[in-house]
Amino acid sequence: MAYKSNALILLFVLCFTKLASGFYIPGLSPTTYEFGDVVPLYVNKIFSDKTQLPFAYGDLPFVCPVEKGGNRWLNLGEVLRGDRIELSKFKIKALENKTCSILCARDLTVGESMEAKHLISKDYKVEWIIDNLPGATAYKTIDGNHKQYEVGFNLGEKEEKKKDVIKTYLNNHFALRILYEKKNNDPNGILIVGFEVEPRSIFGLKGACPDYPNNPENPKLEVDASTTQVTYTYSVDWQETKDVTWGNRWDLYLTNSDPQIHWYSIINSLIIALFLSAMVAIIMLRTLNRDIALYNEKDLKIEDQDDTTGWKLVHGDVFRPPKWGGLLSPLLGSGVQVLFMGIFTMVFSLLGVLNPSYRGGFVSFALFLFAFSAVFAGYYSSRMYKVFKGTAWKKNAIVTSILFPGFIFGVIFILNLFIWSQHSSSAIPFGTFFVLISIWFFISLPLSLIGAYFGYKKTTIEHPVRTNQIPRQIPEQIWYLQPGIRIIIGGGDPSLLEEVQPSTYFYTAFFISSGYRSLASSRPLSTSCTVF
User: Fold this and answer.
1) Biggest alpha carbon distance in the chain?
2) Rounded to whole angstroms, how far apart are CA atoms 64 and 47?
3) pLDDT at residue 88 is higher than 50
């Protein structure tokens, strides 16, 4: 019998090893190129720090069309992030430099020119991808000794000539600089370790390469309320580097060049936290001291002492089922579900599994963790429900799996309608909604029922004190102790403690989930982070 068990374990290990050897996460395994190999360039989206609406680059009417049928398969996290990765018509081969090549020529209508002008005025940036590396703008750090990358490059340029008169120029020439290192065990193989894009706006003849860099003073290509002829060109420059290896090629994107420490926000949060803690401690000490002094009075006869004085007045009502007790258990379960999702996501992030090279991995992993954490939600919700003498544990489990996710799903669906009306790539497709609903009802709901079943079978948690049969009369409360006011105050105080910049709190988690672009910039973020 033991022999059969060991054989089964060995068979399972061998099968798991076989699966593990075939498991591949894009970006975690290097791609080797040799001279003349085709290097595909993918276009993704345009984004801006001034707006939360990205747009698919391939859908823009004033750029070169993409290859038909060249859409790359996207995971769930990429779709939810607004990625729309498509194969471009760039002809790039490994180790082959190009001085100037024509990509396409376009005749822009007035409407297309005005759309380009609008996007440029909103400081939109373009994201392209080579070997899973986003095209970046290279610049020096503040000390001037190190190179750093900012993800994306400008769609165009703005130039203020006079007051309220701003000219916009469309970037139509792209100098692509691809950094590589030679592979150690393959003399003919190279690994791409950097992808830099230097865009320029150059006015030139239609269908011809501009005289650049021989004539760097070429006039710029202005877009305004008129038809525009645009010729898109590009150059390719392969450069070997020994400063960057494939293993650390993401370091240039992750380096934070903002050395400023926001001491004011930190001190402000500490003072508020200490003040609130001291206030609660003083109230508790005064209450306990008053009761203890009352109990220790020597002239007070034992028979005259009342066990229900001071804070003991409510001991018989503390564990009374609340008015909306049917919602307490599902909300408790949902809180546990979010807690487990956050803990496991942060653990895997710290282990390096969810790194920026795994595009969309953070969002996908967090979403599936939330679905599978429903078993904990059902378990703890059922245990709390049993404390209140509930018997319909299946109904409670269904409410637990539907209440909070349903509210979030409804809000996202309504917001998605507005985003969809703007034709943004961050609008969730209806097919993705179907996938989310399937995960919800075919994974989360059954797991919640399983957890509730085991939670309800556990022994009921007994109260440390007996609950009075007659509820104690609650006196009329003054206006600032009304539930609505207390909810606002209770939610406002923690918000005051979170006025520190996001780069101070949860830097890595926010970086990975937002897809590296927000924190790659050298400018400090000015918004405050409220944890909820």
Assistant:
1) 106
2) 18
3) yes
Amino acid at the residue 449? L
Structure tokens at 272: 């508020």
Query: Does this model's pTM top 0.70?
Result: yes
What confidence score (pLDDT) does residue 456 get? 93
What mean pLDDT is predicted for residues 301-319? 62
Which residues partner with 236 through β-bridges?
A: 98, 176
Q: Give the Cα separation of 505 and 531 in Å (integer).
A: 10
Cα 229 → chain centroid: 39
What stretches of 201-247 adopt beta strand conformation (E)? 228-240
**299 Cα distance to chain centroid:** 66
Strands (E) located in 27-172: 41-48, 51-56, 86-87, 98-108, 125-130, 133-134, 136-140, 147-151, 153-154, 156-162, 165-170
Q: Convert 316-373 into a string of H (helix), E (strand) and C (coil).
A: CCCCCCCCCHHHHHHHHHHHHHHHHHHHHHHHHHHCCCCCCCCCCHHHHHHHHHHHHC
Q: What is the pLDDT of residue 353?
A: 79
Q: How confident is the model at residue 495 (pLDDT cuts 50, 70, 90)?
A: low
Q: Which H or E run contains 191?
A: strand 190-200
Whether the bond into 213 is cis, omega within 30 of 0: yes
- The vertex-496 CA angle with 491 and 502, nearest 5°, equals 110
Give yes or no for a contact between 131 and 192, defined as CB atoms under 8 angstroms apart: yes
Give 147's contacts (C-beta < 8 A, 6+ positions apart).
138, 139, 140, 141, 252
User: Residues 321-357: pLDDT tens digits?
Assistant: 877 778 899 999 999 999 999 999 989 888 877 877 7
Query: CA 326 → CA 314, 378, 407, 463, distances in Å?
Result: 22, 14, 17, 18
With beta carbons less than 8 A apart as the criterion, state whether 527 and 504 touch. no
Q: Which residue has the tokens 């008015």?
A: 323
Residue with tokens 């018997």: 391
Amino acid at 289: N
State the pLDDT at residue 498.
55
Q: pLDDT grade, residue 215 (50/70/90)? A: low
What CA dihedral angle connects 326, 329, 331 and 333, to 10 degrees?
A: -150
The first and second tokens of residue 20, run together, are 């593990």
**Model confidence at 521: pLDDT above 50:** no
Percent of the chain whose predicted confidence (pLDDT) is above 90: 45
